[in-house]
Write a structure and sequence with these properties.
Elements: E1 2-3, E2 9-10, E3 19-21, E4 24-26, H1 44-48, E5 84-89, E6 97-102, H2 104-111, H3 120-134, E7 142-148, H4 150-161, E8 167-172, H5 179-183, E9 188-195, E10 198-199, H6 201-209, E11 220-223, H7 237-250, E12 253-257, H8 274-277, E13 287-292, E14 303-309, H9 310-323, H10 329-373, E15 377-379, E16 387-392, H11 408-417, E17 423-424, E18 437-441, H12 447-464
Helix pairs in contact: 2-10, 3-10, 4-9, 6-7, 10-12
């Protein structure tokens, strides 16, 4: 066990320490996969994209003495904004506020076109965050790109790695937001079963070892390893290491979508991320990680970043340069002002407070589940995130542990008519099969609202079971 930079215990089992040489600790040499390795992973569309003839030359403007006639940047003298200020809660005393202002060069950078991959100072801050949070340092073959939320970057990554009609591996149940990304490319979505411990690695191995001869194997596996949306599961360290081993054996990349990393509140030590665990592989470069600030700063700001092999990040940036040029400079400037004011210590103090907040919300919801749906539903307690995934026992005769029945009509129609809204589990299954599971979010409702919602759901369920 060790204490992470954000104060949460982390499991370090299986992670090697610096070796000893002549009585001195020597940092382990990290070997990264060569750039040429990724040629077979990039999609045809990614290979056809070319750098912008204008944006690709932006860095040349920084040479001292150069007079640039290059870009069609508007003159910021005509922008009406002269300064911006906002107040934030103090990380040590939330009842107190502190003011942050943007002006001068920092504001100018936020009002003007900027680098495709993000404002350099913010990118550098995020690189430092990855070093503290995941033990990843520069010089290991990876880079970083800032996007308009992690969803923006996931979409671009999928389009940079997947050709129409490709087979892709997706944990199942899976975040509903990626299903249309893959279905829009007419992909064959190979569902890999998950349980409370994460991706079932034995199922994944069976899929890959029995893959049809002559059919190209999947190039990517998509997973949400902490507080998964929808299941709430957090993958164990053992499962993660087994999946990483399979990635090497069968040559696929892991898309680690991780918006709930900082929302971990389990009693057990937090498992290390795939991004960090691959440091103990013979080489790094099979993990593309997506971080989001939506759950810890603001969902509406649309702030996220991707970290991973430089050739793939470069491909994402080419897509960005074509599609939307860059993430909002102003949102980046606001984020930069905030995190530089905080520093890493106060950033982690804030994320600890966020995790504690959601732990309390989780406890309230589970207490209400026990009170109103005890004996009528089955669930596992989430250790991160914002969701409960519970199976409705739709029949009095339903066997425990068996997924029988279909929650869709009951949840979409009858429960809604009864005054409660949730999501039927079928929307999280790429093949749309029937399931008795339901996803419920515990992030917003008060204790009173939670109890009333589950009381209403209980009444609907008892009627469905013929016990009203």
């Amino acid at each position: 066990m060790a204490t992470h930079s954000d104060g949460i215990l982390v499991s370090t089992s299986g992670i090697s320490t610096p070796v000893e040489a002549n009585g001195h600790a020597v940092q382990k040499v990290v070997k990264s996969l060569p750039a040429a390795f990724y040629a077979e992973f990039l999609s045809d569309a990614a290979k056809e994209r070319k750098p912008s003839p204008i944006r690709g030359l932006f860095p040349l403007e920084n040479k001292p003495g150069v007079i640039s006639l290059l870009a069609g940047k508007p003159n910021d003298a005509m922008f009406p904004f002269k300064s911006l200020s906002f107040s934030i809660a103090d990380t040590t005393d939330p009842s107190q506020e502190q003011s942050i202002s943007l002006s001068g060069k920092d504001l100018s950078a936020g009002l003007q076109y900027g680098a495709t991959g993000g404002l350099p100072r913010l990118s550098k801050w995020f690189m430092g965050l990855q070093a503290l949070s995941h033990g990843r340092n520069s010089g290991e073959g990876w880079s970083l790109s800032i996007g308009s939320g992690s969803q923006d970057l996931i979409y671009k990554a999928v389009n940079s790695l997947v050709n129409p009609g490709d087979s892709v591996l997706v944990e199942s149940p899976v975040y509903a937001g990626v299903i249309p990304m893959f279905s829009g490319l007419h992909c064959e979505q190979i569902e890999v079963e998950t349980d409370v411990n994460g991706v079932c690695s034995h199922v994944l191995r069976d899929i890959l070892e029995n893959w049809p001869v002559g059919k190209p194997k999947p190039k990517v596996l998509y997973t949400v390893p902490y507080g998964c949306n929808p299941t709430g599961m957090t993958a164990t360290l053992e499962r993660r290491k087994e999946v990483l081993q399979l990635a090497r054996e069968h040559n696929f990349l892991i898309l680690e979508d991780d918006p709930y990393f900082y929302l971990y509140f389990g009693k057990a030590a937090r498992p290390l991320s795939y991004f960090q665990l691959e440091l103990d592989e013979p080489e790094v470069g099979r993990v593309l990680r997506f971080d989001s600030f939506s759950k810890i700063l603001s969902a509406g700001m649309r702030m996220g970043f991707a970290s991973g092999p430089k050739p793939i990040i470069d491909a994402i940036d080419l897509h960005t340069g074509m599609a939307n040029l860059q993430a909002s400079s102003l949102i980046q400037a606001i984020t930069l002002a905030l995190v530089e004011e905080w520093g890493y210590n106060n950033f982690f103090a804030h994320t600890r407070a966020v995790a504690n907040f959601y732990r309390e919300k989780r406890d309230v919801f589970e207490s209400a589940l026990n009170a109103h749906l005890g004996g009528l539903a089955e669930w596992s307690t989430p250790e991160a995130g914002m969701f409960f995934w519970f199976k409705l026992l739709l029949s009095p005769d339903q066997a425990p542990g068996v997924d029988e029945g279909d929650s869709e009509d009951l949840i979409r129609t009858k429960a809604y008519e009864g005054g409660v809204l949730a999501l039927p589990g079928t929307v999280f299954l790429p093949n749309g099969r029937k399931t008795a599971f339901v996803r419920a979010s515990f992030s917003l409702c008060t204790e009173e609202q939670v109890n009333e919602a589950l009381r209403r759901l209980r009444a609907v369920l008892l009627k469905e079971r013929g016990q009203a």
